[in-house]
Amino acid sequence: MSKLRIRVDQDKCQGHARCKSLAPELFELDEYGNAHEAGDGTVPAGLEDKAWLAQTNCPEIAIEVTEE
Amino acid sequence: MSDSPSASYLPEHPPVTDWVHDFDHTDPVWTDDPFPIWATLRAASPVVHTERFLGCYMPTTYQAVKEIAYDTEHFSSRRVIVRDVRPEITARAPPITSDPPEHKPAKQVLLPPFTPDAMKRLEPRVRAICNELIDEFIADGHCDAAARYTKHIPVRAIAHMLGIPEKDGDLFIKWIHQILELGIKDENEMMGGVREMTGYFVTHLEQRKLEPGDDLISQLLRAKGPGGQPLTDEHVLGSLRLLLIAGIDTTWSALGSSLWHLAKTPADRERLVAEPALIPTAIEEFLRAYSPVTMAREVMKETTISGCPVKAGNMVLLSFPAANRDPAMFPDADRVVIDRKENRHAAFGLGIHRCVGSNLARMEMQVAIEEWLKRIPDFRLDPAGKVTWSEGTVRGPRQLPVLFGKTA
After folding, report:
1. N vs C: which end of chain A shows fewer Cβ within 10 Å?
2. In this entry, which stretches build a coiled coil (chain A) (predicted)?
3. Interface test with B, best of A12, A13, A16 (most B CBs within 10 A)
């Protein structure tokens, strides 16, 4: 199975925080509540579904998921 | 959010007979059940127009709503309520009434107190508020859930954040009714509400200057604006007006609609009682299907939205609720699916004006529904009562009579 990597587009994120709620292991919020990917964005094995769930619930379409 | 007292009172509107060319979001038919109207408008065009309200467009699709929300060049937020009158703008409520470049610094001041972590610290107080309210009516076996429960939770929560007495909540509810409902057609009600609210906050501002605390008013007084200068009193007052106006009947409405749905849908209610872990997902679906808040913009420059020309000088009824019922975006859009997996709903807006209180609203809804279902797992609409809905741009039940327990 291929590895997933996530990235939050900082120009698009408006701080809805849906990703943090759905996949708390994969995202971090700054002091304003805007999201960025945890670490280098590599999705640990077993959390792939959560990565896709966060991606498909972001109202601003700010999350990119790429398969490596 | 308010305007000057120059314009006169306008009488009741004539009833609508042609929704596509003459829509009116204050018509009683719309207030009672707007969903079939939106479907009719959407089938006609992605953007419709009415001559009412001195000229107003309404985008009817998710795509058209999104294009307008992202386009701050052609669409200004300086007026955020569609009204009969359009007087000169005086009292502002930054950042909701701000456009770029003023918007970002005004919003950044408000964001840190409303992060999910900040809301976690407030959660125990909200849980206690919910239980205090339920204690007052649970023994009766019935209640008006809008008047006795959903109405008081956001008021008390925001009062707690601002460090003002929770018992002042009834005053806030009166001002909000004057500004958001009566104010659409009656300038005097609007101005009266704004004046009283501003006077109230001026007193609290002066008091916090003498005795600063950890509350949100003190935090705003300590905050620095873009140039490193403290915010002006007028700016702080504007933001306080915004928090009160935007933070109360919105969540009251979202919560009321959620309980209304659960009262009339036993299968969904039983599922959430059995699977409380599903409550956050269900709340997102309630927010989509029963989005309470419709915003407004003013067209500043002529442009095209989803192929439709829009002209300067008109207002825009920016209906996030209608966007959230667009079948092109949401399969089975008119059905409430409490475990809907993919849900990019726009209940809290899209783009730079994303609701600053969205984390607060979600926490309040989560806690209020959890506590209600724990203590009142079975309830239903009272067949002898009548559910009534608010008029205007924030939609939710204002009367919600329910009976507790299983049907005999």
Report:
1. N
2. none
3. A16
